[in-house]
Fold these 4 entries.
Entry 1:
Amino acid sequence: MASTSSSSKIAGEDTEDEGEGGISLRHYDALNRSADSFEAGERKVDKSIVNWGNVNVDVMVKIFQSFDIVGLTSGIACVCRLWHKAACDPLNWKTLDLSKFESIFIKTPIHPFIFVASRSDASLTQLLRVSLNLSQGNTRSLICHFNLYLNDDQLAYIAERCPQLRRLVMPSWNRLTKSTICDAIRMWKDLESLTMPSLSNPTYLLEEISKNCNNFRELKIMGPCYFHLAESLVEFLPRLKILSLRCTLVWKDALLCILEGLKNLEVLNISHCLLVESWELDEPMVPVDLNDESILKAASGLREFLTCTKESCHLCMRVVEDEGLIRWYKCEEGLWKQDEVSSLSL
């Protein structure tokens, strides 16, 4: 299977330090050598200096819970067996937060439209290797930065090492193939929540979710919502409870399709959206008033229909200026993490 070969490639990969930038590869190379030595029984602890056996493991777990991923993978698991046990505790690994890590990349005019530096890939691979070895399959949520571009090998490794994943926040899929994405979805039987980019052909993904993820209930799409996407949502995710389309371009017919077709939908967030009539690239956009009678009537059955009610909202103005395709890298740090739906906010 593709996931097995990809996983083996990551687990055994050796890399060289190619310079500064992104996640420090030198840091993770040194860490992995220490971790390998510990696992092989080569790392010695001088008990005459410090008797770590007197420290309560629950206390150490509580301390380690305050560490971010850099702290947890900085070598603390190599201090002694007690610290290793505490570092591997499931409470430390419920969420694997990569939201502060960005790929080193340049944009390109052809697919996948970005080129990621090899040292950036190597750094991320090292980080995944260490953190997922320590997590021991206990990660429930994975959060990626919108400028973190995973490749197929990395996603396959994550899917294999995180079989109990329930929430995935991964806004950028440029380098991922359909087959790898589908393989991952098939492994995540407990997946409940997904934050994803807008896809030109979402059918394959939504169909896999429908077949394999019985508890799936909430979705956030960071990109334009057009009619084909709305149709696919109605066809494959009829039990969807929560949907967020904030800060993007939304076609009126797509919105009506969602409101009328998703009978179990309880919460819909279109805050800061640019709502337009059906639109072609060579035609000017025709904005639609959110107080449109047909929209309000279709939304009347929702528990919450979230829209921006501010008269002069800087985020709404930014979406209009960017023609519905908001450039998050120009926004305040962390703004992309926000959502009016509390369960989707980071």
Entry 2:
Amino acid sequence: MVECEEWEWEKQVKAMPRLEKLVLGNCKLKRVPPGLACNARALKCLVLQGVQLVSYLENFPFVVELEVIRIPGLERITNLPSLQKLTIINCSKLKVLDRIPVLERLVLEDYAMEKLPEYMQDIKSRHLQLDCRVWLLAQLAAGQSGTEWDKFSHVEHVNAYAHHRSNRRKWGRLNSSKLKLSDGSDVGEYVIGDAGYPLLPWLLTPYQLEKDLSLSDSKVEFNSRHHGAIVIAQKALARLKDTWKCLQGEGWHPNNQLEMFWTVKTCCLLHNIVIYMEEEHGAGMPSDQEQYTSGQVRQIADEDAVRVRDALSRHMMESGAHTMAAEDAQEVVPVASGSGDENKEQKERRRQGADRGMEKAHDS
């Protein structure tokens, strides 16, 4: 169909009732025939790649997955009531996405675009995967202080990627559930890291002592809760390494970083499958949420991150909020330090807490 410009198939012509997947590639079609949409009732997956002249796609009631790739004239996609996954790659003129009510996942790839398309505000997708330029990735990572926040703030899960020279950078946003603080402001979910990491818009770190000044009660409370969450992560990693001995270096030495990457990733995938199966059989083990690793796209401290951390610390003191993480780590209270130095007693308490976490992981 490389030279084909017209595909005549009217609605009243019955055909292809069992067609499940259709790929149209590198042809000159001006439109997808209406007979396909009406009569191919088993069609679940539709792929259009390099179809140069198509300007719209509409009225496919049964399609669940749609891919549009390098279609320069495509301007609108409308009325796909069953569509759950939509992949859009290098369709720069696309302006309208409408009547796609059950969309779960949107994959958008365009390294030339300077901002997110306006139709992002109208799409209610739960997941967004974005491949874009580094500048746009930085705008997403800036969160509410960035220029693109209004276009993706309603999306629960976001994974964004950008290539910079030979490196592929990644930024992830956790789900959009928010906590209403005592001062009336809303705070979303963040990645946490210890004092070895910088404070970033998506990464909250503990408070550190400055010029030998003591920390306020709210900051001490924040550090305690923060450390409690870190302890839970350490326990999960301890269980992972205890289950998959190769991660402890026993009998395996990777030849290169790529081999190490795939080995660790495979162990994590298998580990999640084991946990899922245990939950299915009523073992009652804690579930692991999908992880979103985040690449560092900016090296500067952000005022928004400072504001969020301060607001959270005050909220914890004023509301008396209590978490399982804090309860789990109540005997292992961290001491904030700008240099990372600790006395022997503090180190021993941390070591004992880690040992208890390892024992719980083994027992489970």
Entry 3:
Amino acid sequence: MTDTTKPVAAAPATADVPPKRDGFMASCRELDMLAGRINPTPSTAVIGSMAVVTLVASFVLNEHVLSAIDHRAVFIIGSYVVFSSYFVIYYFLDKYSSSFRSVATDKRFYTISNLIKTGMLAAITPFSIQGLIKIIVADNWETIKIRNLGCLYAIPDFVSLLVVRRMQWTTIFHHICVCLFNYANVNNDYANVNACRLIVVYAIFSVFAYSVNMLLASRFLGFARQVSRYLSGVALVIYVSCCAINWSWQVYYWIFLWNRTPWDWTLIAYASAIVPIVYDDLYLNRWLLFNFNRLSKPPTAAEIAAEKED
């Protein structure tokens, strides 16, 4: 469930490249071409800083945020912090990386968006795993913690709508759905058996997508091709596994709810709204497989030419 943008200029078509109509794949091919043009030191410094911030954020979240009663305050304050982070990171890279300044503005914010989302999702992953185990094994739904985790999950998507330009319509729709789902989340009591429980589990599995965001951002660090291939393979295995388990549980629990309350409009609305999100996940899985296969082959003439230019 990561941000996708419309490419500025796609790489020339080759035998191992899907048709040009695949905008997301074309966009990611273009990012690969840009990867060598970003100075690795400033970007690595940002990644290192994000790792430290993530560790600190996990501690702060556990001690102060996840137990907060005012969920709207969590969302508003968190959105302000994330929004401000865009410009702090932008300032740092713009000042210390001349190659970053040479990239189109929308691509700069796209990269920063993936870095921030990686940090945010990584910070809440331990609590998401803990919550998922309680839900699946013990049928224990902790309303306050779930509401706050939902707010934290929605913040990067909400801010991305405000900052990142030229996103594909599927991504825009996905972000809007996340925001709407979070509105339902903060107003729901999870002691009640309803469609909001489906939303929570889907969101928890989506948290693990931070490995994919990290993959997208890591290409600006100048990693070796084999390292990128390894990261792509790991992201593919994690994402495919999460989607398979998640979708299986979604179907099972949706049928369970339907049998309890047939023709419940919330179940019909959820099923309708989730279709584009599932499509987005399928599209991303397809690209991860394509990218892994591409990196397993010798570099194309276009990629070699790009490396020589750098």
Entry 4:
Amino acid sequence: MPNEDALLEAAAISVADLHQSHILFILSQFDLVVTTFVLLGPKKTTLAKSAHATFEMSSANKLTKCAACGKCNDGQKNCEECKLDQALKDYWKDRPQPSDEALFETPPPADECLICMHSIDTWGFVEEGQSWYMPCCGKSIRETCHLDVMMEDNSSLSPCVFCRTPIPRSNKARLEMAEKRMKKYDDADAIYFIAECYQSGTFEVQKDYKKATRLYFRAHLKGCRVATEKIGSAYLQGEGVDCNFVIGMKWFTLAAVEGSLLARRALSEWEMSAGNTCRAMKHLLIAASAGHDESLQDLMQGYK
């Protein structure tokens, strides 16, 4: 919206060529003050319409407050964050839990590194076997493969092995690239990457479990399989949501159906503690067949 000085300057220039001019009134609404000039003379119509159009645009775009959290939004009843929170709470309200038939079917293959073709057990930042997200093109590789590339290239800007875009080694710069990709493409992997940053407090952001869980849910809705397991962990540990074991296990069951080997191993431990040895061994057998080493060790221990 033009400020008052700009309007005064525009009016002064127009008045110089007119015989009569008057400043009529000041319009105000919700503490937004717009000075409107109505000029009497040959050029009065254009400037008056411009001033009124400015005021009408300001009134139409005035911010309202979200009914749920009290924060300002763009005139809608609830902001996007509150809509996601409510959708997460209502997710299992009318949705059936996956059946045993679906649970014990052969799961889809695990994600593979596009360089070494080994499976990526989990996504994260620290443990060997986890993935390294490329915020330029949205692809992921194993952490070990990324370290090999870093050792070969000692420059401050390591090019992406896929699109050759220079990727800064600064954590803050990488996070900014991921945020731009999330806003531009609504990319599920970018959303998941940023969620992990908020969950762990890495990449120079402050820990925020509620925001992390909200982003995990958003990534899940976009088809990110590993985000499903993270939501289950959030419910089991009470991070960002109210602690709820039943809801957490529903999310873990859904994650196992989608192919999460960690979620399947967690289900085997829960079934074992409940005395359901047969079901627990089935979970371990499926996870071990998919290449999960820890599940294989548990399976061998169970047969001793």
